[in-house]
Amino acid sequence: MATVVLGIAAAAVLLPFISGARVRAEGCRRTMAAKLASDLMEQIVKTPFTTIVASYNGYTEGQGQIKDAGGAVFTDSNYSKFSRDASCEYVYVPQENGSGGTKFIHIKVRVYYDGGEIAAINRLITK
Description:
The mean pLDDT is 86. Strand 3 and strand 4 form a beta hairpin. The protein has a four-stranded antiparallel sheet with strand order 1-2-3-4. It has helices spanning 2-45, 52-56, and strands at residues 59-61, 82-91, 104-113, 116-126. The chain has one domain (2-126). The N and C termini lie far apart (75 Å). The protein is α+β, with helices and mostly antiparallel strands. The protein contains two helices and four strands. Helix content is 39%, strand content 27%.
């Protein structure tokens, strides 16, 4: 009887620690995802304005194929379940008369963990 009571008490004591570990791991994944999204956004913004849409609209890095700023794939197992993509499109505002080309591009970067979206950044840039 004492063993059963001790087992139930031990389970009750350990449950918050297990839950805390799960929450901590989720927080680490979200932090990494935000950093990966920010890094790709920075890379896109540094690209010449006239080539952003052609270079990054529809850009994808599959699961386990995330690249660093130098273009090398991360080999660390922490990145193995991450993937990301980007979309870029010209934005026309009512004040533009349509001549001379657009002055704005909307960029969206999304990061996924194990197939589910975990972070997204939107940015509107101009020439």
